[in-house]
Amino acid sequence: MINVLVTGAGGFIGTNLIDRLHRQKGVCVKQYHNGEDLPLLYEQLNDADIIYHLAGANRPQNNEEFARVNRGLTELITNYLKEHHKTPKIVFSSTTQAELDIPYGLSKRAAEEVLKNYSNDTGAEVYIYRLPGVFGKWCKPHYNSVVATFCHELAHDRDIDIHDANKALDLVYIDDVVDSFMDCLDREKTEGKFYCDITQTFHTTVGELAQKLYEIKDMRKTLIIPDLSNKLTKYLYTTYLSYLAENNFSYSLPAHQDERGSLVELIKSHQAGQVFMSTSRKGVIRGNHYHHTKVEKFCVIKGVANIKLREIDSGEELITYMVSDQNIEMVDIPPGYTHSIENVTDDEIIVLFWANELFDPDNPDTFSLNVQPNENDEKKG
Q1: Minimal CA–CA distance to 98: which of 70, 73, 75, 74?
Q2: Domain boundary assignment for the chain
Q3: Looking at the chain, which runs of residues are DSSP E strands?
């Protein structure tokens, strides 16, 4: 059993780390929260095999608090450990601002030196992470994360203030931080090396961040999902959703109604096309058209339908698929095949569709042609 102590357990990083630690087999987690009595901290230090030292002051009321908390608490911990001949491994969350001669940076740099001295004096393993801006779920807005503040404001339908759109931002995602911290449980010390890096970091600007988040917010209107193959965009999308008010998780989608039934667009993507659904009343036939480049997939999720296809140069040879909700299956619609789908039940059917490209009214790539030809149809090529 590994005994773990997390200081600053109620903070943003601490909350995410503790959730992961609780799911790790063979780990016993103890927590020290800012403001708790020191005897509790001393008791927890006695049994700790590894300490995640996350406690710190970010925005105190006066600059003296930086030194008192960031350096002072670190000295208190290491002095107690040395006095009682304890050598637990220590993982310390520092900041890239430790490179700057500002009160916050100076206090973090001083804490780093305390930990280095502790390691040199005792041989204990110390891992120091100079983290850039960390973002993700549970980060407090209007505190020390521009991502959290922007996400919170946009999720609550408020515009964001941008003072310098070109200001550079270095960011790291909370799950990447936690992954690296978890690796420290069984990481072996590299002699003479104290500083560790997070494998994946992101470089952007304030203006680019704001643009991405506005696009994410507008998805409920445009239905266009951002390019989630971009890791930063993917993590920003996840983070933005975590700031929605609990009464704002759902949103309405416009339905296009006519005598046949309804059609609703669900999701669009410039990279992956779009998903939509339709309802059709008894006897309704949709389609009777073909595409040259666009391809589709049909999936009946309620009712029974007859899907018919004909290659436009094959004369009268029909391909038929009878599909129903009793055996969910997907039917591919290749290019160059005119196709239709007919409701063959007395009840309404519901069909999900996927197309590999967004509908472009100026170039719809959709050409009318009956699947079952008649003498009025002209041969298409």
Answers
A1: 70
A2: 2-241, 255-368
A3: 2-7, 27-32, 50-53, 89-95, 126-131, 133-135, 168-173, 195-196, 202-205, 255-258, 261-269, 273-280, 285-290, 296-302, 304-311, 319-324, 331-333, 337-343, 349-355, 367-368
Given this model, what pLDDT does residue 305 score?
A: 98
Burial of 192 (0-12, 13-18, 19+ CB in 10 A): exposed
Q: Which of 32, 52, 104, 240 is catalytic?
A: 104
- pLDDT for res 373: 79
Query: pTM here?
Result: 0.91
Check residue 60 and give its pLDDT. Answer: 64
Q: What was the pLDDT predicted at 61? A: 64
CATH: 3.30.1330.10, 3.40.50.261, 3.40.50.720, 3.40.50.2000. Which one for 2-241? 3.40.50.720
Average pLDDT across each block of 10 residues of the chain; the chain has 381 residues. List them in order: 97 97 96 93 96 83 73 95 97 94 91 96 96 97 95 97 96 98 87 89 98 97 96 98 98 96 98 98 98 98 98 89 97 98 98 97 96 61 34
Q: What is the pLDDT of residue 93?
A: 96
Q: Which of 292, 252, 259, 298 is nearest to 275 (CA)?
A: 298
* Number of other CB atoms surrounding residue 357 within 10 Å: 18
What's the CATH fold of domain 255-368?
A: Jelly Rolls (2.60.120)
Q: Is 240 a catalytic residue?
A: no
Pairing outcome for strands 304-311 and 319-324: antiparallel
Structure-block tokens of residue 341: 């789908």
pLDDT at residue number 144: 86
Give the Cα separation of 52 and 173 in Å (integer). 18
Q: Is 263 helix (H, G, I), strand (E, B) or coil?
A: strand
CA 205 from centre of chain: 19
Give the integer Cα–Cα distance in Å for 246 and 48: 38
Supply the DSSP symbol for 140: P
Task: Return d(Cα 49, Cα 26) in angstroms, integer.
Answer: 12
